[in-house]
Predict the structure.
Amino acid sequence: MQQNSITPQVLIVGPLKLQNELLTFFLGRSTGLKCVRCQEYDLNSILGKKKNPKPLILWDCLDTALKDLGTDFSLDFEAIPGQCFVALFNAIPDTGIETEAMKMGVRGIFFENDPPAILIKGVQAIMGGELWYPREAMAKCFMESTRNSIRTPKNDQANLTPREKQILTMIAAGAGNDEIAEGLYISIHTVKTHIYNIYNKIKVPNRIQAALWAAKNFEA
């Protein structure tokens, strides 16, 4: 497998050779990203050496029941050394798979009936550091984490500024960088700077962990 030093990689993982070959061609042509198809469900062998920028693993969960998601995927996801993004595709809607995927650190999910435009937009968003989930699923996960978490004192906020708390609350509600910028009338660059500072202060690596931190530490 050749490494492209300029464009990010997308690795499409699944057993359906013809479908995924077509998906690889379509996604590469539509996004300009270097796309590669893999049949193996072994992330260690797929990733190999650390890559920069981070690749996206598009993981086919066709015919995977919700009850089997943790069993089939959890150990592999836990083995990811932190240098890639993972998203599921061919998911069945209305099964609760979104919540389970978020708990496992999956960056996004695409359903079996999603149109091609959604896939393109979602892949680009994930490669840009965003999450790609239905808004209602993000809200549900956040509320469940809030109900189940043990609260710390409300003044224990890692010295976040009022603006950082505001942005972290929006992240926890599922807002993307564009939405945050538009809602607060600030630039995308300023949003990214705030998010970088938030991650450093609360010691988390991504939006999912930031949302879970907010659920544990912010007053409802």
